[in-house]
Design a protein that fits this description.
It is built from eight helices and 25 strands. The protein is of the alpha+beta class. It is elongated. A five-stranded mixed sheet has the order 6-10-3-1-13, with no helix packed on it. Strands 15, 18, 20, 22 and 23 form a five-stranded mixed sheet that branches. Strands 7-8-5-12 form a four-stranded antiparallel sheet, with no helix packed on it. It folds into three domains: 166 residues, Immunoglobulins (Immunoglobulin-like); 97 residues, Sandwich (Immunoglobulin-like); 139 residues, no CATH class. The longest helix is centred in the first third of the chain and has 24 residues.
Amino acid sequence: MKERSKNKRIWARIAIVAALTLATAFTVQAAPPNRAFSAAIVPTTANPDQIQSYVLTITNVGSGGGASANLGSATIQIPTGFTAVSLTTVTASPPKTWTGEIVGTEIRLSAGTGHDTFSNGDWVAVTFTATAPHDEGAYEWTTALHKNANFHGPTPALSGTQPVVTVDEPTPPDGKSSISGAKFYDRNTNGLWDEGEPAIQGWKVRLLLDAVEVAVAFTDADGDFRFQNLEAGAYRVEEVFPSAPPTWLPTTATWFSQSLAAGENYVGPNFGNVCIGCNGGGHTLGYWSNKNGQNSFNSIPGALAALSGLNLVKADGTAFDPASYAALKTWLLNATATNMAYMLSAQLAAMKLNVLADGAGLPGFVDGDALVYAPGLLATDFISISDLIAAADASLLADGYTPAGDGNRSMQEKIKNALDDANNNKNFVCQVPCSVVYPL
Protein backbone atom coordinates (compact mmCIF):
# COMPACT_ATOMS: atom_id res chain seq x y z
CA MET A 1 0.00 0.00 0.00
CA LYS A 2 2.77 2.49 0.88
CA GLU A 3 4.77 1.67 -2.28
CA ARG A 4 1.74 2.42 -4.42
CA SER A 5 1.31 5.71 -2.54
CA LYS A 6 4.95 6.60 -3.24
CA ASN A 7 4.60 5.87 -6.96
CA LYS A 8 1.40 7.88 -7.00
CA ARG A 9 3.26 10.92 -5.68
CA ILE A 10 6.06 10.54 -8.28
CA TRP A 11 3.56 10.52 -11.15
CA ALA A 12 1.66 13.38 -9.50
CA ARG A 13 4.81 15.52 -9.51
CA ILE A 14 5.31 14.82 -13.23
CA ALA A 15 1.68 15.80 -13.79
CA ILE A 16 2.20 19.04 -11.83
CA VAL A 17 5.09 20.09 -14.06
CA ALA A 18 3.06 19.32 -17.20
CA ALA A 19 -0.04 21.08 -15.88
CA LEU A 20 1.93 24.17 -14.85
CA THR A 21 3.55 24.33 -18.30
CA LEU A 22 0.14 24.21 -19.95
CA ALA A 23 -1.37 26.70 -17.51
CA THR A 24 1.48 29.15 -18.08
CA ALA A 25 1.30 28.82 -21.86
CA PHE A 26 -2.50 29.16 -22.09
CA THR A 27 -3.75 32.69 -22.67
CA VAL A 28 -7.44 33.44 -22.44
CA GLN A 29 -9.25 35.60 -24.97
CA ALA A 30 -8.19 39.13 -25.75
CA ALA A 31 -10.40 42.10 -24.95
CA PRO A 32 -10.88 45.62 -26.26
CA PRO A 33 -9.06 48.50 -24.49
CA ASN A 34 -10.40 49.03 -20.98
CA ARG A 35 -12.47 45.82 -21.24
CA ALA A 36 -9.53 43.55 -20.42
CA PHE A 37 -9.48 42.04 -16.93
CA SER A 38 -6.99 39.81 -15.15
CA ALA A 39 -7.77 37.23 -12.47
CA ALA A 40 -5.20 36.26 -9.85
CA ILE A 41 -5.25 34.13 -6.69
CA VAL A 42 -3.03 34.18 -3.60
CA PRO A 43 -1.57 32.07 -2.24
CA THR A 44 -0.77 29.99 -5.33
CA THR A 45 0.46 26.91 -3.46
CA ALA A 46 -0.96 24.53 -0.87
CA ASN A 47 -0.01 21.31 0.83
CA PRO A 48 -2.32 18.30 0.37
CA ASP A 49 -5.40 18.61 2.62
CA GLN A 50 -4.26 22.03 3.87
CA ILE A 51 -6.91 24.45 5.12
CA GLN A 52 -6.09 28.07 4.37
CA SER A 53 -7.52 31.41 3.25
CA TYR A 54 -7.36 32.53 -0.40
CA VAL A 55 -7.99 35.87 -2.13
CA LEU A 56 -9.06 35.87 -5.79
CA THR A 57 -8.87 39.34 -7.36
CA ILE A 58 -10.39 40.48 -10.66
CA THR A 59 -8.74 43.68 -11.97
CA ASN A 60 -9.38 45.95 -14.98
CA VAL A 61 -6.03 45.98 -16.83
CA GLY A 62 -7.19 47.90 -19.91
CA SER A 63 -4.62 50.02 -21.74
CA GLY A 64 -6.56 53.25 -21.42
CA GLY A 65 -8.81 55.24 -23.69
CA GLY A 66 -12.41 54.62 -24.54
CA ALA A 67 -15.26 54.07 -22.16
CA SER A 68 -14.91 52.28 -18.85
CA ALA A 69 -15.79 48.61 -18.68
CA ASN A 70 -19.06 47.23 -17.41
CA LEU A 71 -18.62 44.25 -15.08
CA GLY A 72 -21.92 43.17 -13.63
CA SER A 73 -21.01 39.73 -12.28
CA ALA A 74 -18.38 37.01 -12.27
CA THR A 75 -18.46 33.23 -11.87
CA ILE A 76 -15.54 31.31 -10.38
CA GLN A 77 -15.55 27.53 -10.85
CA ILE A 78 -14.29 25.70 -7.73
CA PRO A 79 -11.85 23.01 -8.90
CA THR A 80 -12.78 19.40 -8.22
CA GLY A 81 -11.01 18.32 -5.03
CA PHE A 82 -11.23 21.59 -3.14
CA THR A 83 -13.74 21.22 -0.31
CA ALA A 84 -15.19 23.09 2.69
CA VAL A 85 -15.21 26.35 0.73
CA SER A 86 -16.67 29.23 2.71
CA LEU A 87 -16.76 32.93 1.81
CA THR A 88 -15.32 35.52 4.17
CA THR A 89 -15.59 38.92 2.45
CA VAL A 90 -16.10 40.58 -0.94
CA THR A 91 -14.30 43.92 -1.34
CA ALA A 92 -13.62 46.35 -4.19
CA SER A 93 -11.44 49.37 -4.99
CA PRO A 94 -12.53 52.05 -5.34
CA PRO A 95 -15.31 51.07 -2.91
CA LYS A 96 -18.17 49.32 -4.69
CA THR A 97 -21.07 47.24 -3.43
CA TRP A 98 -20.52 43.61 -4.43
CA THR A 99 -21.91 40.43 -2.93
CA GLY A 100 -20.92 36.77 -3.16
CA GLU A 101 -22.45 33.36 -2.65
CA ILE A 102 -21.57 29.72 -3.22
CA VAL A 103 -23.95 27.90 -5.54
CA GLY A 104 -23.06 24.25 -6.07
CA THR A 105 -19.46 24.21 -7.30
CA GLU A 106 -19.31 27.92 -8.14
CA ILE A 107 -18.48 31.15 -6.34
CA ARG A 108 -20.80 33.80 -7.78
CA LEU A 109 -20.04 37.50 -7.43
CA SER A 110 -22.46 40.26 -8.45
CA ALA A 111 -22.49 44.06 -8.42
CA GLY A 112 -25.00 46.23 -6.65
CA THR A 113 -26.99 48.77 -8.64
CA GLY A 114 -24.66 51.40 -10.06
CA HIS A 115 -21.49 49.63 -8.96
CA ASP A 116 -20.68 47.81 -12.20
CA THR A 117 -18.35 50.36 -13.86
CA PHE A 118 -14.60 49.60 -13.78
CA SER A 119 -11.84 51.92 -14.91
CA ASN A 120 -8.23 50.90 -15.44
CA GLY A 121 -6.89 49.52 -12.14
CA ASP A 122 -10.27 49.05 -10.45
CA TRP A 123 -10.72 45.64 -8.86
CA VAL A 124 -13.06 43.36 -6.94
CA ALA A 125 -11.78 40.58 -4.66
CA VAL A 126 -13.34 37.66 -2.83
CA THR A 127 -11.72 36.15 0.25
CA PHE A 128 -12.59 32.55 1.09
CA THR A 129 -11.36 29.54 3.03
CA ALA A 130 -10.95 26.12 1.44
CA THR A 131 -9.43 22.70 2.06
CA ALA A 132 -6.96 21.68 -0.63
CA PRO A 133 -7.29 18.30 -2.37
CA HIS A 134 -5.38 15.28 -1.13
CA ASP A 135 -3.94 14.61 -4.59
CA GLU A 136 -1.06 16.72 -5.84
CA GLY A 137 -1.55 18.74 -9.01
CA ALA A 138 -2.26 22.13 -10.58
CA TYR A 139 -5.85 23.24 -9.96
CA GLU A 140 -7.34 25.98 -12.16
CA TRP A 141 -9.93 28.38 -10.73
CA THR A 142 -11.72 29.12 -14.01
CA THR A 143 -13.17 32.63 -13.89
CA ALA A 144 -15.85 33.95 -16.27
CA LEU A 145 -16.95 37.60 -16.48
CA HIS A 146 -20.41 38.91 -17.36
CA LYS A 147 -21.82 42.37 -18.19
CA ASN A 148 -25.22 43.60 -17.10
CA ALA A 149 -27.95 42.70 -19.60
CA ASN A 150 -28.92 46.38 -20.13
CA PHE A 151 -25.37 47.41 -21.09
CA HIS A 152 -24.87 47.59 -24.86
CA GLY A 153 -21.06 47.59 -24.93
CA PRO A 154 -18.78 44.56 -25.35
CA THR A 155 -18.58 41.80 -22.76
CA PRO A 156 -15.51 42.09 -20.50
CA ALA A 157 -12.96 39.34 -21.02
CA LEU A 158 -9.92 37.94 -19.23
CA SER A 159 -6.43 38.46 -20.51
CA GLY A 160 -3.45 36.43 -19.35
CA THR A 161 -3.98 33.07 -17.66
CA GLN A 162 -6.59 31.61 -15.33
CA PRO A 163 -5.66 31.50 -11.62
CA VAL A 164 -3.94 28.24 -10.59
CA VAL A 165 -3.23 26.77 -7.15
CA THR A 166 -0.52 24.10 -7.11
CA VAL A 167 -0.94 21.37 -4.50
CA ASP A 168 2.31 19.63 -3.58
CA GLU A 169 4.03 17.96 -0.65
CA PRO A 170 6.45 20.36 1.07
CA THR A 171 10.15 19.68 0.50
CA PRO A 172 11.84 18.99 3.83
CA PRO A 173 14.96 20.98 4.73
CA ASP A 174 18.31 19.33 4.04
CA GLY A 175 19.31 16.86 6.72
CA LYS A 176 15.83 16.62 8.19
CA SER A 177 14.10 13.24 8.59
CA SER A 178 10.55 11.97 8.53
CA ILE A 179 8.45 9.05 9.77
CA SER A 180 5.25 8.02 8.05
CA GLY A 181 2.75 5.19 8.13
CA ALA A 182 -0.87 4.34 7.48
CA LYS A 183 -4.02 2.93 9.05
CA PHE A 184 -6.49 0.57 7.42
CA TYR A 185 -9.74 -1.15 8.26
CA ASP A 186 -8.84 -4.84 8.62
CA ARG A 187 -12.25 -6.25 7.78
CA ASN A 188 -11.07 -9.88 7.83
CA THR A 189 -8.85 -9.31 10.92
CA ASN A 190 -5.83 -11.04 9.33
CA GLY A 191 -3.40 -8.21 10.09
CA LEU A 192 -2.78 -7.44 6.39
CA TRP A 193 -4.02 -4.58 4.22
CA ASP A 194 -5.87 -6.63 1.64
CA GLU A 195 -7.33 -5.36 -1.60
CA GLY A 196 -10.68 -3.68 -1.04
CA GLU A 197 -10.12 -2.86 2.64
CA PRO A 198 -10.59 0.89 3.21
CA ALA A 199 -8.31 3.39 4.90
CA ILE A 200 -9.25 4.93 8.25
CA GLN A 201 -9.36 8.72 8.31
CA GLY A 202 -9.06 10.99 11.35
CA TRP A 203 -7.14 8.56 13.59
CA LYS A 204 -4.77 10.14 16.10
CA VAL A 205 -1.13 9.05 16.12
CA ARG A 206 1.53 10.38 18.45
CA LEU A 207 5.30 10.63 18.12
CA LEU A 208 7.62 10.16 21.10
CA LEU A 209 11.33 10.93 21.42
CA ASP A 210 13.05 9.47 24.47
CA ALA A 211 9.61 8.57 25.90
CA VAL A 212 8.39 12.19 25.63
CA GLU A 213 5.56 13.11 23.25
CA VAL A 214 6.83 15.61 20.70
CA ALA A 215 4.04 15.68 18.08
CA VAL A 216 0.65 14.30 17.11
CA ALA A 217 -0.87 13.73 13.67
CA PHE A 218 -4.18 12.56 12.25
CA THR A 219 -4.58 10.20 9.32
CA ASP A 220 -5.83 11.66 6.05
CA ALA A 221 -8.38 10.30 3.59
CA ASP A 222 -5.89 7.67 2.41
CA GLY A 223 -5.14 6.59 5.99
CA ASP A 224 -1.67 8.18 5.79
CA PHE A 225 0.10 10.10 8.52
CA ARG A 226 3.52 11.77 8.50
CA PHE A 227 5.87 13.45 10.94
CA GLN A 228 8.32 15.73 9.09
CA ASN A 229 11.40 17.91 9.70
CA LEU A 230 12.72 15.64 12.44
CA GLU A 231 16.18 15.60 13.90
CA ALA A 232 18.07 12.30 14.04
CA GLY A 233 17.12 10.23 17.08
CA ALA A 234 15.26 7.21 18.48
CA TYR A 235 11.52 7.65 17.92
CA ARG A 236 8.42 5.68 18.84
CA VAL A 237 5.10 5.98 17.00
CA GLU A 238 1.91 4.99 18.82
CA GLU A 239 -1.70 4.96 17.69
CA VAL A 240 -4.14 6.60 20.13
CA PHE A 241 -7.43 4.76 20.56
CA PRO A 242 -10.61 6.83 20.94
CA SER A 243 -12.08 6.61 24.43
CA ALA A 244 -15.57 7.45 23.20
CA PRO A 245 -17.82 4.78 21.64
CA PRO A 246 -17.80 2.81 19.40
CA THR A 247 -15.25 0.22 20.52
CA TRP A 248 -12.14 0.01 18.33
CA LEU A 249 -9.70 -2.88 18.52
CA PRO A 250 -6.27 -3.51 16.96
CA THR A 251 -5.49 -6.37 14.59
CA THR A 252 -1.77 -5.49 14.37
CA ALA A 253 0.85 -4.05 16.70
CA THR A 254 -0.20 -0.63 18.00
CA TRP A 255 3.26 0.97 17.89
CA PHE A 256 6.64 0.81 16.18
CA SER A 257 10.03 2.37 16.87
CA GLN A 258 12.84 3.58 14.64
CA SER A 259 16.25 5.19 15.15
CA LEU A 260 16.33 7.86 12.46
CA ALA A 261 19.54 8.92 10.78
CA ALA A 262 19.90 12.47 9.44
CA GLY A 263 17.92 12.81 6.21
CA GLU A 264 16.20 9.43 6.56
CA ASN A 265 12.57 9.08 5.47
CA TYR A 266 11.23 5.99 7.24
CA VAL A 267 7.94 4.34 6.26
CA GLY A 268 6.66 2.29 9.17
CA PRO A 269 4.34 -0.72 9.20
CA ASN A 270 0.62 -0.23 8.70
CA PHE A 271 -1.74 -0.15 11.67
CA GLY A 272 -4.82 -2.37 11.29
CA ASN A 273 -8.03 -1.88 13.27
CA VAL A 274 -11.68 -2.87 13.40
CA CYS A 275 -14.67 -1.66 15.35
CA ILE A 276 -17.17 -3.97 17.01
CA GLY A 277 -20.76 -3.80 18.19
CA CYS A 278 -22.66 -3.63 14.91
CA ASN A 279 -25.87 -5.61 14.51
CA GLY A 280 -24.83 -9.04 13.24
CA GLY A 281 -28.29 -10.57 13.44
CA GLY A 282 -27.97 -12.06 16.92
CA HIS A 283 -31.14 -13.01 18.82
CA THR A 284 -31.12 -13.91 22.48
CA LEU A 285 -32.39 -16.80 24.59
CA GLY A 286 -35.37 -14.59 25.39
CA TYR A 287 -36.21 -14.21 21.71
CA TRP A 288 -36.05 -17.93 21.00
CA SER A 289 -38.36 -18.60 23.94
CA ASN A 290 -41.08 -16.07 22.98
CA LYS A 291 -43.78 -16.07 20.31
CA ASN A 292 -41.66 -14.26 17.73
CA GLY A 293 -38.89 -16.78 18.22
CA GLN A 294 -41.36 -19.65 17.95
CA ASN A 295 -42.57 -18.31 14.61
CA SER A 296 -38.98 -18.12 13.36
CA PHE A 297 -38.28 -21.61 14.74
CA ASN A 298 -41.24 -23.03 12.85
CA SER A 299 -39.82 -21.57 9.62
CA ILE A 300 -36.49 -23.40 9.97
CA PRO A 301 -36.50 -26.84 8.32
CA GLY A 302 -35.00 -29.53 10.55
CA ALA A 303 -34.39 -27.22 13.51
CA LEU A 304 -34.95 -29.92 16.18
CA ALA A 305 -32.70 -32.38 14.38
CA ALA A 306 -29.94 -29.78 14.05
CA LEU A 307 -30.08 -29.01 17.77
CA SER A 308 -30.10 -32.71 18.64
CA GLY A 309 -26.94 -33.04 16.58
CA LEU A 310 -25.11 -30.79 19.07
CA ASN A 311 -23.67 -31.93 22.40
CA LEU A 312 -26.19 -29.95 24.45
CA VAL A 313 -26.59 -30.83 28.14
CA LYS A 314 -29.04 -30.26 30.99
CA ALA A 315 -28.35 -28.99 34.50
CA ASP A 316 -27.10 -32.39 35.67
CA GLY A 317 -24.76 -32.78 32.66
CA THR A 318 -26.85 -35.39 30.84
CA ALA A 319 -27.57 -34.99 27.13
CA PHE A 320 -30.42 -32.78 25.97
CA ASP A 321 -32.06 -33.64 22.65
CA PRO A 322 -35.20 -31.48 22.31
CA ALA A 323 -38.23 -33.40 21.05
CA SER A 324 -40.41 -30.30 20.62
CA TYR A 325 -40.32 -26.52 20.65
CA ALA A 326 -42.08 -26.57 24.07
CA ALA A 327 -39.28 -28.69 25.53
CA LEU A 328 -36.67 -26.35 24.03
CA LYS A 329 -38.41 -23.29 25.46
CA THR A 330 -38.53 -24.71 28.97
CA TRP A 331 -34.88 -25.76 28.77
CA LEU A 332 -33.80 -22.28 27.60
CA LEU A 333 -35.75 -20.46 30.31
CA ASN A 334 -34.32 -22.67 33.08
CA ALA A 335 -30.66 -22.36 32.04
CA THR A 336 -28.22 -21.35 34.80
CA ALA A 337 -24.44 -21.30 35.16
CA THR A 338 -24.34 -23.57 38.22
CA ASN A 339 -23.24 -26.11 35.67
CA MET A 340 -21.41 -23.83 33.21
CA ALA A 341 -21.89 -26.44 30.49
CA TYR A 342 -25.68 -25.96 30.76
CA MET A 343 -25.48 -22.19 30.22
CA LEU A 344 -22.97 -22.72 27.43
CA SER A 345 -25.41 -25.17 25.84
CA ALA A 346 -28.25 -22.63 25.97
CA GLN A 347 -26.17 -19.87 24.35
CA LEU A 348 -24.93 -22.35 21.75
CA ALA A 349 -28.47 -23.42 20.90
CA ALA A 350 -29.58 -19.80 20.44
CA MET A 351 -26.67 -19.05 18.13
CA LYS A 352 -27.21 -22.26 16.17
CA LEU A 353 -30.81 -21.18 15.59
CA ASN A 354 -29.61 -17.72 14.50
CA VAL A 355 -27.40 -19.30 11.83
CA LEU A 356 -30.05 -21.81 10.78
CA ALA A 357 -32.56 -18.96 10.38
CA ASP A 358 -30.12 -17.11 8.11
CA GLY A 359 -29.62 -20.28 6.08
CA ALA A 360 -33.38 -20.67 5.76
CA GLY A 361 -33.59 -17.20 4.19
CA LEU A 362 -35.10 -15.39 7.17
CA PRO A 363 -33.92 -11.76 7.12
CA GLY A 364 -31.88 -10.25 9.93
CA PHE A 365 -30.12 -13.30 11.36
CA VAL A 366 -26.48 -14.42 11.63
CA ASP A 367 -24.13 -15.31 8.81
CA GLY A 368 -21.92 -18.19 9.93
CA ASP A 369 -18.89 -16.52 8.34
CA ALA A 370 -19.32 -13.35 10.39
CA LEU A 371 -16.43 -12.51 12.72
CA VAL A 372 -16.75 -11.72 16.41
CA TYR A 373 -14.36 -10.55 19.09
CA ALA A 374 -13.67 -13.46 21.46
CA PRO A 375 -10.57 -12.78 23.58
CA GLY A 376 -8.72 -15.74 24.97
CA LEU A 377 -9.96 -18.32 22.49
CA LEU A 378 -7.51 -17.80 19.64
CA ALA A 379 -4.22 -15.97 19.24
CA THR A 380 -5.90 -13.17 17.23
CA ASP A 381 -8.89 -12.75 19.60
CA PHE A 382 -11.24 -12.92 16.59
CA ILE A 383 -13.20 -15.97 15.46
CA SER A 384 -15.94 -16.74 12.96
CA ILE A 385 -19.38 -17.69 14.24
CA SER A 386 -19.07 -21.14 12.62
CA ASP A 387 -15.77 -21.77 14.39
CA LEU A 388 -17.20 -20.46 17.65
CA ILE A 389 -20.09 -22.91 17.38
CA ALA A 390 -17.65 -25.72 16.69
CA ALA A 391 -15.47 -24.73 19.67
CA ALA A 392 -18.51 -24.69 21.98
CA ASP A 393 -19.72 -28.06 20.77
CA ALA A 394 -16.26 -29.64 21.16
CA SER A 395 -15.97 -28.27 24.70
CA LEU A 396 -19.35 -29.76 25.64
CA LEU A 397 -18.35 -33.11 24.15
CA ALA A 398 -15.20 -33.10 26.28
CA ASP A 399 -16.96 -32.12 29.52
CA GLY A 400 -20.71 -31.79 30.01
CA TYR A 401 -20.61 -31.05 33.73
CA THR A 402 -18.51 -28.07 34.86
CA PRO A 403 -19.53 -26.83 38.31
CA ALA A 404 -17.34 -24.47 40.34
CA GLY A 405 -13.83 -25.84 40.66
CA ASP A 406 -13.92 -27.88 37.47
CA GLY A 407 -10.79 -27.46 35.36
CA ASN A 408 -12.75 -26.88 32.15
CA ARG A 409 -15.16 -24.33 33.59
CA SER A 410 -13.03 -21.25 32.87
CA MET A 411 -12.67 -21.96 29.14
CA GLN A 412 -16.33 -22.85 28.83
CA GLU A 413 -17.22 -19.54 30.45
CA LYS A 414 -15.10 -17.66 27.88
CA ILE A 415 -16.85 -19.45 25.03
CA LYS A 416 -20.23 -18.86 26.67
CA ASN A 417 -19.48 -15.13 27.06
CA ALA A 418 -18.49 -14.84 23.40
CA LEU A 419 -21.75 -16.51 22.32
CA ASP A 420 -23.80 -14.42 24.75
CA ASP A 421 -22.23 -11.20 23.41
CA ALA A 422 -22.91 -12.30 19.83
CA ASN A 423 -26.52 -13.19 20.62
CA ASN A 424 -26.81 -9.65 22.00
CA ASN A 425 -24.90 -8.05 19.05
CA LYS A 426 -22.10 -6.73 21.22
CA ASN A 427 -19.02 -8.25 19.59
CA PHE A 428 -19.63 -8.54 15.85
CA VAL A 429 -16.88 -7.03 13.68
CA CYS A 430 -18.46 -4.20 11.68
CA GLN A 431 -18.17 -4.50 7.91
CA VAL A 432 -17.36 -0.80 7.40
CA PRO A 433 -15.36 1.61 9.58
CA CYS A 434 -17.25 3.25 12.42
CA SER A 435 -16.88 6.91 13.36
CA VAL A 436 -13.64 7.97 14.99
CA VAL A 437 -14.41 10.30 17.91
CA TYR A 438 -11.92 11.85 20.33
CA PRO A 439 -13.41 13.75 23.28
CA LEU A 440 -12.61 17.45 23.29
